Each structure stands twice: as C-alpha cells, then as structure tokens.
Amino acid sequence: MFKGRSTRNIARLLCLTMGVSAVAAPLVACGGGAKYDNESTPLVLATDVLDGVFNPFFYTSGSDGEVVSQTQIAMLASDEKGQTVANWEEPCVSLAYSTVTNGSLDEYNQTQDYKNYNTDYYFALKDGIKFSDGVELTANDVLFNIYMYLDPAYTGSSTMYSVAIKGLQQYRMQTDDENEGNASSAYFDSQTTARIDNIYQWATNRATGDWGEWDRYEPYEGEKTIESDILKAHELFREELESDWTNFEKLDVAKDYAKYVDANGNPLLTESWQIFLLSYRFLETKKVPQQEYYELIDNYGQSDHSKETLINYVYSSMVGEYSKATETYKKNLVSIISYYGTASTFRDYVRSKVIEHQVNADGGMKVKKISGIEIIKDQATIPTQSGAPQTLTDKDGNAHSYDVLHININGQDPKAIQNFGFTVAPGHYYGADWDRVNGTDYFGVKFASADFMTSVKNIQVPLGAGPYRASAENGSTVGKDQKTDFFKDNIVNFERNDNFLLGAPKIKKLRYKVVSNNTLYDAVKRGEVHYASPNMDYNTVQKLEGSDSGSLSYASADNLGYGYIGISARYVPNIWLRRAIMTTLNAQMCVNYYGGGQYASVIYRPMSQTLTDYYDRSWTAYSNAKDDFDYTYDSTGEKAKQYTQRAKNSGATDADLKLTFTIAGDSDDHPANQMLQNSVEILRKIGWDVTLTHDSTALSKLANGQLSVWAAAWSSSSDPDMYQVYHTASTATSTLAWGYPHLKSNQSTQYERSKLDELDGYIEDGRKYMTVAERKPYYERALNALMDLAVEFPTYQRKVYYVWGKNVFNESTMYTGNQVATYRSPLSEIWNVSFNESAD
C-alpha cells in the first residue's frame, strides 16, 4: 500500500495483502548494464489472474481492486499502523475530520432513545482536487458514492450499510418508522425468496410446453414478473459464460493441467477453450483404471473453437429451448439460479425488483434522503469532542472555509470510521444522469434499481483522482467503453495523472502484467523483474543474505492475512462431520511448506495475528474447554471416527461421507496441499470417500458458494470487526461459502442456529464499545462461537517478503529496512518512487 495510507483504495496497493509482485519491462542495455528513465521506462507490476472487473464499486478480487486503486483516492488515508488519518499531505479527500459522541450507552439503556446517545462525524473536504480528466471533485461526488454504497440494490463488497446511520433504515426500506427498518428488511428477504420460489414451482412442473402459462405462479396481479425474471437469469448466465471464458484465457493450460496425459504421455489439455468446455461437461476427463493416464471424452464434437461459437453453444444448450419449456430446460434453469455463479447475482436482482415494486405500489419514494447525512457548506471550523472547535486552514496554514460532510449515527461504532474512508469515484463518470443531481434530494443514484447498478458496473475502465490514469499502450487516454485498449494481452496500462493532488508521479508509465508467482524470485535475479514479493523459505533467504546479496535487496514484514480451510454447511450439513474433518488437519504442515517457524506460524483462531491488541497469544490449541469444540490433530483418525459415528447417530448417511476437497489451481505447489492430502488419507481409512482436487476456477466457485471443503486465504484490516465476513446480515459472498442459508434454515439443528445467533450477537456487541478492553472479550467469544460452528479452520500466517534488484530504484525514494511494516511496503508512496536514472 502507499505508506499504508488509504483505507479503501491506495491501502490495498503494491504487494501487501494479496502477495502481488512487480516485474520490470525489458531492460535497455547500456554498457553491459541497464538504463532506467522515469519518462520512458515503464514500471510493470505483476498481478495474479485478473477477473477484469475494474470498477471501484464492484470489484471482488484483490487483484482487480489493486488495479483500480491506482486511479482512486478515498475520504481518509491510513498510517503505517493502519490507523485513519487526514491532512493536506495525505492522498485523501479530507483535510481534517473529527468524531463527537453525545451521551453514553448507560443513558441509552435508561431511555432506549438514541437521541440521548449518538455520534457525529465531520469531514472537511479539500477544495481544488481534480479527477484525472480535469473535472473538479465536489461534495456531490462524495454524496454520490455514499448513496451508491447505501442503496438496497448495491451488491458490491462495501458494508457501509452495517453502520447505524440515522435515517438509513427508513431510506433503504422506504418506511417512515426507523424501528420498522429491520422488519422491512426481513419482509423484502421473504418476498425475494417467495418470488424465486415461484420460478421453482413452475420449473418443477416437468410438463413440457407450458412456457408463458404463469397465472397460478405470478406473485403480483397483472404483471409478467416470472417471465422477466427468467429472461434476466438468462442474461446473467450469459455474462457468467463471458466471464468464465475470459478467466480461462488467462490460464497456463499446459502447466495447470499437466497431469492430464494420454497413454503416450502427451498432454490432453493444451487450449483454454478446452477448459471452458470442460467446466460445463461438454468435455470430460476420465482416468483409466489402474493407470496413470486419462481419456478425453468429447461431447461437443465440432471443429469451431472460437469464443462466440462456444459461448453460444453452451448458452443455447443450457437455455436455448426456453420457449418450448422442455423438461431439460427446466432442470437447467433450476441449476442456474441455484448453484451457478448466476445464483447470487440473480437473487440480488430479484430483491431490488421486489423493493422497486413495493415503492411503486406505494406511490413512489416516501423517503428521498438519509436524514443522518448532510453537507454543511462553507465551514471555518469543525466540532471536536473537547468542545473547542478545530479551525480549518489551507495548505499554507491560513484560515479558510470548506464544505463539511456530517454523518450522525446511533450510539457508537468503532468500525464506522473505516467504513467512512470510502473511495470517492467521479459521479459524472459513473452516474447515468448527473445533470439531475441537486445535492438535496437526488444524488445521482436511482433508488433500488438493478438496471442502474448494472449500468454502473458495466463501466470497466476506471477513472478517479488517484496517482495514475487508465491509458492505452501508447499512453493515450481511453474512454469508458475502451476496456480492450486498457487491458490487452494480460497487460493493464497506466500513465501518470498530472492532476494528482500530491503532484504528478515521478515515474510516468505504469503497467500491470499477469505473471506466475513461482518464477518471481528467479526473474528478479535474472534482471527481468524490478521488484517482487515471492513466497520465501529458508533456502531462498540464505541466497538473499549470501550469494545473491550483491545483486538483490529485500525487506520483510508480518503479512496481514492468514490461511484457512473452509467447510460449507450446505454440503457438509452435519456439524459432527465438519468437526471430524477438522481433527484430521495438521496446520504445522502448512508452516513446513514455508520452511518453518522463521517464516510462518500456526494460527489458532480465525483472526490475523497482526491485530496484536485482539489476537490472544495464549491461544495455543484448536480447542476450548468452555465450549464444545476440540479439533486437536489426531493422526490415527480415532477422534474423527468417533465424530463420524455421532453424525450417523444423528441421521448422517454414507452418502454424506463422499466429498471433494479443493485447492485453487492445478498444481501441488500450495501451502495446504500436503495437509489436505494427509487429511484425505486419514478419512479414507475410516470409511470416507474423499477426493482432493486442484481447480483453476476454485475462487470463482467459492464466491458463489459452490465448494464443499477448500483451502484459501484471507486478507484483513486494521480493525477486528467480523461483520462483513461472518454476520448473517452481511451480503458478502463469504456467507454463501460458509453455507449460511442452510444454517439459518430449519434444516439445520437448533444448536447450530443458536450458535449463529450467538455469533451475530457477539459481533454486534463488539461494535457497541470503543476501547480494546471493552471490545476484546466479545471478539474472543465470537471467535469461539465461530470455531464451534466448524465452518472455518485457521491454519497459518506467514511473513511477506519484498525483493528488488540493486541499482534499479533510487532507494531514498522508497521505504527500506525497518521502515517496511505490515501496513507499509517499499513502494508505498508510488508517486514519489523514482528509478535510479544514473544506473548503467
């Protein structure tokens, strides 16, 4: 990140949380060495596979977010400890902010009225900030972003909606009574489920030929909603196919699928189109019994392998016969809206339509703005908790007046300040009808409109006020519909933003390139790479400190994220089976992958150890005497056998013991590979039918809740709040991955539902208090409740290493040595970084 300085944009940049690394462009030979020039030599940063969702509101992968972040700034920045800051020297919209709490929790408990207990946030907005296209950033842009994140049709990763902003529930649920907000939310959820259930009811009527006969299934009199919903599902499925094709094009098929060979040892899978067909079972691989080779079954059988042809083929095969409403079509439709990636986006769409229908039925919007959010014009001061107002000054220290964003929330919320550090993207660029914005009751966001949100999401060339602007390879500016020029041949192109508020970056050209992480160290060593963050082990560090010390420099820090094993309650619904799996997981094997305790350590609760005030170092076992869980590793399988029997006593069958464990990618080179292979062997010995697979599409499947047991890793923030990832009201994809829909249903046990309620309660209680001493006990209980549910098993936390070639950079413009920290990488302030132009 940029000196650890932005909470939603720049903070995620440059190799910190996602293990992303930087590679150089081809070097220019000069006297046997290399010549670097800030005006002509591109700094090329390597990235993991990109989904191509380069949109500040809707990106989901860290790699896409990192690309977007180069073009954005946020309301607040963060320091090297991850704490929020704002001043003229920071790359953020606010020049100052303050927090004023009125009343106390004790007063609220006496009156049950938040008028006596609330918190005001004040953000003084800098003037003179310009987006890279030269348009000035104003308070209207700030409000546009807020209303985007708080709209009920918004489906991105921001959880600003979880903050109890005054009037928010009235606005989101269009009710005059704030106390009815939660009831309205539950009502809309139930109506969404009912509306989708109408499709299920029609589709499970297996009779062929009744397309259009909706009367007994329609939720609203006189409206053809089922037809429009189904056609929308078709549209979303088509988008999923397009996205899958793009992702498969980025694979190194020969490497990732190297194990699939024929009887002569020749590879069966070498082209990305094969992987596309394989994922939809129009191609299949079949292992020959008792042999180490495979057969390829071709259910497609045609010679045209072009993108348009194959996408059309899969699409028409799945939903092309919709007008005939055949039995096969209906089965496919149920699968698409239940299990495919389309399922979650389709539900979001239907929910927004339910709200939109209700608003229209009630005669339009009752509540046009959120009462707790306002812009106060031309303020010379902002209030403070001490009572003495803070005087606002310009860059030179002279008193000056500024527009101030004022947000009032019920009670207190320690995470609120981070939620209010949102990215400020340009409303004129992302808003469809910016001319209508008045700053009083219309802010550029069409309320609860899935179509409006789609129009925003379709803008895939980012624009903002960050240090760099999107460009074509030749440096020319690209429009919002020119994504193929911005992202071409797995390379993303940037030029410096001359309007950047802290001054134009020293290095003019910036590139992102999709590269394989396992070759990064050697690439640095060969001089093909400027800077990288490769996985490190003992032997590699010995090289850095020995034979390679003359040509390479490095720095290290504690990594923000951690590894884990996830178990979906949807596919493993019996809690005793989930617990059985956990007793076969030996996390030390993950640590051994990194070369031992010097570079990684076992982590016993699902919280980053970098949260030193909250992660209890006394946790030294995967068990807790105060709770029901004990997942201490047992190599004999005896404990897993006992848990399995308890599962069978409570209704589990042998069919429940057939599972697939998934690791992202198709390579054995993964920290969790040995651990999961060992788990599989233990479980097989006690009668389970378990398969370990490597899947290059695993992460996209995970986002849609399609995996049963998987290995992955989290990034983390500087706050212990667990709402986004674990609260049942969160709209994050993690709740699908955990199988929360099952856990919340009557199909789960009362015990599990009560634990889920406990978890929600502890998370909410943790937000009521502000100090570490008050909050820590609630998060300890929340973590134990989560462990009790047996859906996440934390495994390891590693160090992150940064390696770069000597003489590549002017190192006085970087952070080096002890300056590097968890929230600060060597290239944190990228706008200040300069090549060593004297190198030759």
SSE order and pairing:
Blueprint: E1 28-30, E2 33-35, E3 43-47, H1 62-69, E4 77-78, E5 84-85, E6 94-103, H2 105-111, E7 117-125, H3 139-150, H4 168-173, H5 181-203, H6 225-249, H7 253-256, H8 272-279, E8 283-287, E9 294-298, H9 307-319, H10 327-338, H11 342-361, E10 373-379, E11 381-382, E12 390-391, E13 402-410, H12 416-419, H13 427-430, H14 450-457, E14 468-470, H15 483-486, E15 487-488, E16 491-496, E17 509-514, H16 520-526, E18 531-532, H17 538-545, E19 552-558, E20 562-567, H18 575-582, H19 588-593, E21 600-602, H20 638-649, E22 658-664, H21 673-685, E23 689-695, H22 698-703, E24 709-714, H23 723-726, H24 734-738, H25 740-744, H26 750-766, H27 772-789, E25 792-794, E26 796-805
Parallel strand pairs: 3-17, 22-23, 22-24
Antiparallel strand pairs: 1-2, 4-5, 6-7, 7-13, 8-9, 10-13, 11-12, 14-16, 15-16, 16-17, 18-26, 19-26, 20-24, 20-25, 21-26
